[in-house]
Amino acid sequence: MITARYHREIPQRYRLEAGKCKKCGFIAFPHRLVCPKCKSQDFETIRLSDEGKILTFTIVRVASDKFSKQTPFAVGIVELKEGVKLTTQIADVDVDKLEIGQKVKIVFRKIQEDGKAGILCYGYKAVLI
Amino acid sequence: MRDVVVIGAGMTKFGELWDKSIKDIFVEASLKAIKDSGVDHIDSIYVGAMSSGLFVGQEHLGAILADYLGMNPVPATRVESACASGGAAFRQAYLEVASGASEIVLAGGVEKMNDGADVTEVLATAADQEYEVYQGITFPGLYAMIAKAHMHQYGTTREQLAAVAVKNHRNGSKNKNAQFGFEVTPEQVMKSTMVSDPLRLLDCSPVTDGGAAVIVASMDVAKKLNKNFVRVIASAQASDTIALHSRESFTTLNSVVKAAEKAYRMAGIKPTDLNLCEVHDCFTIAEIVVSEDLGFFEKGKGGEAVLNGLTSIESGKIPINTSGGLKSKGHPVGATGIAQIIELFEQLNGKAGGRQVKNARIGMAQNMGGSGASSVIHILEVK
What we know:
The structure holds 2 protein chains of 2 kinds. Chain A has 2 domains: 1-48; 49-129, CATH 2.40.50.840. Chain A contains 2 helices and 8 strands. Chain A has helices at residues 3-8, 10-15; strands at 17-21, 27-28, 43-47, 51-60, 73-80, 85-91, 103-113, 120-128. Chain A has a 5-stranded mixed β-barrel with strand order 4-5-6-8-7. Chain A has a 3-stranded antiparallel sheet with strand order 2-1-3. The longest helix of chain A has 6 residues, at 3-8. Chain A is globular and about 45 Å long. The two termini of chain A are 31 Å apart. By secondary structure, chain B is α/β, with parallel strands linked by helices. Chain B has 2 domains: 4-117 and 207-230, Peroxisomal Thiolase, Chain A, domain 1 (3-Layer(aba) Sandwich); 119-203 and 233-381, Peroxisomal Thiolase, Chain A, domain 1. Chain B is 38% helix and 18% strand. Chain B is built from 14 helices and 11 strands. Chain B has helices spanning 22-37, 52-56, 61-68, 85-98, 119-124, 139-154, 158-172, 186-191, 219-225, 254-267, 284-293, 302-307, 325-329, 333-348; strands at residues 4-11, 44-48, 76-79, 104-112, 194-196, 199-200, 209-218, 230-239, 276-278, 362-369, 374-381. A 9-stranded mixed sheet of chain B has the order 3-2-4-7-1-8-11-10-9, sandwiched between helices. Chain B has a two-stranded antiparallel ribbon with strand order 5-6. The longest helix of chain B is centred in the first third of the chain and has 16 residues, at 22-37. Chain B is globular, with a radius of gyration of 19 Å. The mean pLDDT of chain B is 97. The chains are: A mainly beta, B alpha/beta. The A-B interface holds A 5, 9, 12, 30, 36, 55-67, 70, 73, 75-77, 85-89, 100, 111-112, 121, 123, 125 and B 118, 120-121, 124, 128, 130-132, 134-138, 140-141, 144-146, 148-149, 152, 193-199, 241, 243-246, 250.
């Protein structure tokens, strides 16, 4: 992970900041320069709520090398209250008991380590409410 | 635009080709295609490759492949659209001939995946690196989430997913170029190692080295050579959000729906006019979803259709993946879109041997990148 890249994604990863289109209300997470719905380029920054529900999920049992020590782990698509959807790990859970529709909240966690001497990478994960 | 035809095809065997480099693989496929077509020169080259940079550390593929094919100074360009790179390269060749800019173009695809790279990580670069892959998701994982949603929404079953693999392996067992040209049973599929719930090892297309090439030409060239040819009657492409989570539905691939609408309109045909279709079955669920999105079956009924044999070679309804598909034939990502065209070329010319669809006149190839962010569709016809 290049530290500059990591740094510029902190608003989204640490604070769940999104861009809300001032013209049509579409919420872009992560932020975008052009609204995919109305093509407006006028956005305001909002903070997303940290509660939502699981729309679909899987249990990753074979991962890339970077995540191989974490398997098995659950990853799902979670819809937050504003209707924004994001891909996130679902942590602290018996992976065999997950179900579509379960309510979750978003928490701040370590996501990956960039090798032995690299930076620690943080961000959001979901946990069951 | 003027008529465009395919006049020759060639491919390597798909598999683990440890003794061959990416150059060897591409040149072998291209030489076969050139010989098959009978042309004495080509005007330009397009090569589809998803990630030669990460797989073997080689970019600038157009130039290096033209060089090793002995074709300098013919212009050569690499086309990248993830796993749809081959289809996209074919489309560029089609457009170049259709426009009148060239008479004879080689459209190739190649991937050398077995060379030491972390394949799971390389393939994941076709998803949103910052907002999907960062969380540890993989491609089997993304399609597993599609499968989970499809099962939840439409009641698609584990047996139906397995039926895709069983059918495609049966077809692939009749294809000498297939990587895994053997049959599998539903029980073997459903007991294979879990990769990403609910997808198991035998729901996934394999890691493959391979190359494929076709010669695309104007009708004038085809007539002069007096060769068997098939006409390209539609070429369409569409895009969708790179991230699966950004879509309104996880069970419909909008890029497939949109590209199909355009392709059917351009060809002036309906789904029922097709005699066969090669679809991008990177995972069993993908074939089910795509078979619905192409209009062969009602939404949610794709699983039932494959289990009931409606997509088998003998069925007569719509034979899907007669080549064995990505599942059995193998999936060297950049080559896949071209290999699909080759299957149509052989089928429409009546040269598909034991897997021949009777009286095949019109066929479709649907090639897809990522979790469906790109879809390229071609329809070919023989008179």
